[in-house]
Design a protein that fits this description.
By secondary structure, the protein is of the alpha/beta class. It has helices spanning 6-12, 16-23, 27-38, 42-55, 77-95, 131-146, 161-170, 215-222, 225-231, 252-260, 294-297, 299-302, 325-332, 385-388, 401-418, 439-446; strands spanning 65-66, 99-104, 108-109, 114-117, 152-156, 181-185, 188-190, 200-202, 205-206, 208-210, 236-241, 265-271, 281-285, 288-292, 315-324, 340-350, 356-366, 378-382, 429-431, 457-459. It has three domains: 1-39, no CATH class; 56-396, Spore Coat Polysaccharide Biosynthesis Protein SpsA, Chain A; 400-460, no CATH class. The chain has 16 helices and 20 strands. The longest helix is centred in the first third of the chain and has 19 residues, at 77-95. It is globular, with a radius of gyration of 24 Å.
Length: 460
């Protein structure tokens, strides 16, 4: 598209209201609006709109759904042996410099009333460390433990990219090497009305939305960082989202199971707390592993129980994965392979008279877990929710900073008590990843030592 053809293209797509607005702008502002819109794949947007309009609504799920095969939390000697073998395989991957970590962090902390990138939200219970600091310190600790190089990739969005880079720069990358902390931004897509109209955010910009967490795999490829990692000899990418402070970055056991299964994509799951929990569910769908959003899963399946009265489809999605980089490359080689989903939302829309008002819109996005059924081989591993999953999504109530801090305190108190040290009930405990990455590591560090038990405890 060049600027001379711009009016014709707007007419072709029936965007006369945008064209009228464009014609009233000064020449320099016209160029600004053109440059903005030219950065989008309009063919994709209007094809997605056409498909959604012809579908006439969200199709009902018609498929063969079964419980999937899941590696359980170890409870028997045989389970323990398999875990030990997996841990050894994962540690070899890390030691051989074949692992990188990706944090998906495109959002702002709006729901937390935190007007900055979500990763800059302070969350740890004693030192108030941010989410980004906790993850970066884990990577640093792993690098030291295994004498290895683990690049840390941060996926941002256009709205928080500069602030995120500045945050890491200001904090000297939390002790990581600058060249091993890589930032790239996900794509945005124009938001569209059900009638097929693009919307103005302001004089020279359309209303847009991020293309979803699945866009991380597309942006990784487009940024050149996928090839950069492959050129470094890295073969596996640990993936998580920024809002879960309990994530075990590059968990050797998880990496090991992934490697032993020769999986393209692996996933950690937790047991759903109850039949009403609104969480994506890992299932076998038409013979292939998949994750279904709770809204697409259907009430009968969400509430199904087995012969013992336990939840049949219990495997809740944690948004923690490992991807083989050759698989990520295949997903991008002939155009991005993940499907787009349509979310119906209500937004405040800028009207021609300068006022705003509510308007129903469609937002198209991709989900990273849609890669799972495209994989030749998959792996799914159950973990303890109390140890690895406490997302921070809301200002208060469930999935809030309060519940996450409580989970962190409970976890770290448990590590100390498992090391043979009794703690007064009200003492908060925070353990730096740079001091210990797990309870076994902590037990070795505390052997033969005493701790002050009169106040909240921070071990570093």
């Amino acid at each position: 598209m060049n600027q001379a053809d711009f009016p014709v293209i707007l007419q072709h797509y029936g965007q006369d209201h945008i064209l009228d607005h464009y014609s009233r702008l000064a020449v320099d502002r016209q160029k600004e609006l053109y440059d903005h819109i030219a950065g989008f794949d309009l063919d994709l947007v209007f094809e997605l709109h056409k498909d959604r309009a012809q579908a006439g609504g969200v199709p009902s799920l018609s498929a063969e759904i079964k419980p999937p095969l899941v590696i359980p939390i170890p409870r028997t000697p045989e389970d323990m042996d398999r875990h030990a073998a997996a841990k050894s395989a994962g540690e070899s991957l890390i030691s051989d410099n074949r692992v990188a970590a990706l944090i998906v962090a495109g959002g702002q902390g709006i729901r937390l009333r935190h007007d900055n990138p979500k990763g800059t939200f302070p969350i740890s219970p004693v030192k108030n460390k941010t989410l980004f600091q906790l993850f970066a310190e884990q990577v640093k600790a792993l690098r030291v433990r295994f004498s290895s190089r683990i690049p840390l990739l941060i996926m941002t969005s256009p709205e928080n990219h500069d602030d995120t880079v500045t945050f890491f720069t200001t904090h000297n990358y939390f002790g990581l090497e600058k060249g091993d902390v890589l930032f790239f931004s996900q794509d945005m897509l124009p938001t569209i009305t059900p009638a097929g109209e693009l919307l103005l955010k302001d004089e020279t910009h359309l209303l847009t939305n991020p293309d979803g967490h699945g866009g991380s795999l597309k942006a990784l490829y487009a940024s050149g960082f996928l090839q950069h990692l492959i050129d470094l000899g890295i073969s596996e990418l640990f993936y998580c989202q920024v809002d879960n402070p309990l994530v075990k970055i590059a968990d050797p056991v998880f990496l090991g199971y992934h490697a032993l299964a020769k999986a393209d994509c692996s996933t950690k799951v937790v047991r759903r707390e109850n039949i009403d929990e609104k969480v994506g569910v890992y299932v076998s769908l038409n013979g292939k592993d998949a994750i279904l959003e709770y809204s697409d899963f259907g009430g009968l399946h969400m509430r199904a129980v087995d012969e013992k009265g336990k939840i049949l489809y219990w495997a809740g999605n944690t948004a923690i994965h490992v991807f083989n980089l050759a698989f990520v490359s295949r997903l991008n080689d002939h155009g991005f392979a993940l499907p787009y989903h349509c979310a119906s939302k209500t937004v405040d829309n800028l009207r021609p008279d300068g006022t705003t008002g509510p308007l129903d819109v469609w937002k198209f996005e991709t989900f990273v877990f849609d890669a799972i059924p495209l994989a030749e081989r998959t792996c799914c591993m159950e973990v303890d929710r109390r140890e690895e999953f406490s997302p921070v999504k809301n200002k208060s109530g469930p999935d809030s900073p309060t519940t996450a801090r409580r989970a962190m305190i409970r976890l770290h108190r448990g590590w100390v008590e498992d090391a043979g040290i009794s703690l007064p009930s009200k003492i908060k405990v925070e353990i730096s990843p740079l001091f210990a990455l797990d309870k076994e590591d902590l037990a070795g560090k505390l052997k033969g030592k005493t701790l002050p038990l009169q106040k909240d405890m921070y071990l570093e």
